[in-house]
Q: What sequence folds into this?
């Protein structure tokens, strides 16, 4: 595994709590008394990790232009999981499957925000493509506020094949498109579901769209013709939660 960096107090704390291997922590001498930084230092001491107190300039050189909050962790790269692994999670938890499939999200801040919402809404796994999409970078980790440590992410060569495997496992595939045939609240999201969202500019690609069992739209009543992909993900996920809660009651 290659080296990577996590920046910011909350993402580093979450990585420490989940036992992610950390090689070294760099802390600004100006921020070492901050409450969050002190918590990081306690975890580091308990885990016998190397900590270096450095000048802020050294941190700026490590991550030029980034808002690091005075702390950087040098870690082994976050590992992706296999598709089979996330397909096993719901049954192990006694839950109805809920997945996110992102067909080409390129902005790391969007991916981070989506992972944060995915963790909050109980998603069992997120699938992303290998090409023409952002991966699990330090910017994603920071934007996710640490959620990247809790959500299994699968990186696949072919989204279409991944959807076929999910459908074989009994999962219904619901794609979000501006011209979707049904409004999202009219589709049963309480059943085993994989929600598919496209990239920021091009939406869901044709072959991926053709694999969807349902295409749903999110009504827009203003003059703007689309929603940010992370906002759309949040709306769909919490509609799934609402329907599932209603079904239980």
A:
């Amino acid at each position: 595994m290659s080296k990577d960096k996590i920046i910011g107090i909350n993402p580093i704390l979450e990585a420490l709590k989940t036992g992610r291997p950390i090689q070294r922590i760099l802390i600004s001498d100006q921020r070492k008394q901050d409450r969050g930084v002190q918590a990081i230092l306690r975890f580091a001491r308990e885990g016998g990790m190397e900590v270096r107190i450095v000048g802020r300039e050294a941190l700026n050189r490590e991550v030029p232009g980034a808002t690091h909050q005075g702390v950087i962790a040098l870690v082994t790269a976050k590992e992706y999981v296999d598709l089979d692994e996330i397909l096993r999670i719901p049954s192990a938890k006694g839950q109805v499957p809920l997945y996110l499939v992102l067909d080409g999200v390129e902005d790391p801040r969007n991916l981070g925000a989506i992972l944060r919402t995915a963790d909050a809404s109980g998603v069992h796994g997120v699938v992303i493509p290998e090409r023409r999409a952002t991966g699990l970078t330090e910017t994603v980790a920071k934007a996710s506020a640490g959620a990247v440590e809790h959500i299994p992410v699968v990186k696949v060569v072919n989204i279409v094949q991944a959807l076929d495997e999910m459908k074989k496992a009994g999962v219904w595939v619901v794609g979000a498109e501006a011209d979707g045939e049904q409004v999202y609240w009219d589709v049963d999201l309480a059943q085993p579901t994989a929600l598919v969202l496209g990239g920021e500019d091009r939406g869901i690609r044709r072959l991926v769209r053709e694999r969807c069992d349902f295409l749903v739209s999110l009504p827009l009543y203003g003059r703007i013709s689309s929603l940010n992909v992370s906002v759309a993900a949040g709306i769909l996920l919490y509609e799934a939660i609402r329907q599932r809660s209603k079904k239980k009651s």
